[in-house]
DNA sequence: CTAGGAACTTAGTAGTTCTAGG
DNA sequence: CCTAGAACTACTAAGTTCCTAG
């Protein structure tokens, strides 16, 4: 637009002085500019992510509110007034008292150590044993507070909602290259006690409060820079358009950098997502060649190549993650493919009537257990025996391999190929295949089978969840509904029978009609019963499986969109509002015969 | 080749909001 | 209208990948 305007001005000017030929030349020249610009707006070259970026900075966690004076902390049975800093950290613990975290030794030890750092000298001298600390009063106070919050009047709740909306409108958006975009996490993480997943050596440590002085702002030079809160300063304001983040800070538990970035609905995230699936589709074109290659490599003279080939086979067949090395003692002990240890697999020359079975049992990302018994090719089995020879259980299974080596190899096989592409590829292709096999005819049944297909992918990727707390109860409720429906059905059937008998005797129109009516009633109840039973199996099968992760991160949305278009199913049945925003690009571009 | 940093994607859970059905 | 439970959102931890320096 800018260049078009420029062009018009220029042409007017030139026309004025009558240099027609030059004008034509300039017109062509500026057309070129316009085209270059448009092209550049679509895809920047050499790592440039944006040309203009303006935002309001982060929203900080609310300041600490001291406890009212009647709420007391007791040490060794006696009330004790804590200094502000010590009190705040104490409340973090008090709030978690219901959680079983607080009973764990490591958690308590880490917490106490960090808590003492916040104490005054006197407090430090006095408070020497966590077991003598009584947070009961404080705990009750916070429980009452959250109850009170729930019990607020409608008007007050509405007021809170409006205030939140105001903050969202002010801080939740930025301008990136002529577009107003939603920011994903514009609130700074509040202080609290660190809760890792699984057996985390740092659980209970104090996650400290982030101040403006910790914050790096990233925006364009020519934008309105965000202002730090009065009386404070940012750590730094930089203008790096080779990255996508707006705000960053360093977190104190692992020393990792945290970022504020854009929402998945943004151009910058959407394009990246699209690219990811395009890479996976390129893998589809050459996967046969790659598979032939790694099967061949199982026979290699070189151990490192055999290990690489077996690992790749696992990644491809079982959708395992790459498995980077991790620093011991810094995080929970979890592994992926390349970091598997001897203790994580058991070899069974024969098991459950199958030959060459490998039993996997390890903790993966988020300490989610991966357990699987897989029959493998004889060559793979023999290779594994070889890799395990003369090793201790805690030794690396693939001692000549790591993710860097593996990814370097993959890069040579296909441009942009890395280990994680296999997960994306196998997830998406599985969905597509499963959807093709579907036969059901009505819409609800189709959606149910869509969920089945989604579930197949979730199982492949080992996306698990804790069974919902209310699962047993809600299952029981459903079961009693089913029982009631069955009862109703037999009643309806009985009534139908007697109506039939009646009709046989009477042989008049009225009784015939009654039979028809009862027949319909039976049918209706049967349908309802079926629906409930389907719901029950669906729920049961979903007990420990999380569908969301694969839907959001692994399944090319164009497959689902195409399927919806093909069968006349509204996209809303598959994707909720947020998901539709994230996948807007796919909903826009996929037609019914899209092929992954 | 190693180590560490940086940037970005993927992940499950807790809390909140919505909705169906009693 | 009320409530149980489903659905959705926010949060933030935990991965992968790429890059650089020694």
Automatic annotation (TrEMBL):
One of its GO terms (cellular component) is chromosome. InterPro entries: DNA_brk_join_enz, DNA_topo_DNA_db_N_dom1, DNA_topo_DNA_db_N_dom2, TopoI, TopoI_C_dom, TopoI_cat_a-hlx-sub_euk, TopoI_cat_a/b-sub_euk, TopoI_cat_euk. The keyword Membrane applies. GO terms for biological process: chromosome segregation; DNA replication; DNA topological change; rhythmic process. Residues 193-568 form the DNA topoisomerase I eukaryotic-type domain. Pfam families: Topo_C_assoc, Topoisom_I, Topoisom_I_N. It comes from the Eukaryota. GO terms for molecular function: DNA binding; DNA topoisomerase type I (single strand cut, ATP-independent) activity. It catalyses: ATP-independent breakage of single-stranded DNA, followed by passage and rejoining. The chain crosses the membrane at residues 13-36. PROSITE patterns: TOPO_IB_1 (PS00176), TOPO_IB_2 (PS52038). It is an enzyme of class 5 (isomerase). Its main location: nucleus. It is found in: Nucleus. Keywords: Biological rhythms, Coiled coil, DNA-binding, Isomerase, Membrane, Nucleus, Topoisomerase, Transmembrane, Transmembrane helix. Belongs to the type IB topoisomerase family. Releases the supercoiling and torsional tension of DNA introduced during the DNA replication and transcription by transiently cleaving and rejoining one strand of the DNA duplex. Introduces a single-strand break via transesterification at the specific target site 5'-[CT]CCTTp site in duplex DNA. The scissile phosphodiester is attacked by the catalytic tyrosine of the enzyme, resulting in the formation of a DNA-(3'-phosphotyrosyl)-enzyme intermediate and the expulsion of a 5'-OH DNA strand. The free DNA strand then undergoes passage around the unbroken strand thus removing DNA supercoils. This is DNA topoisomerase I.
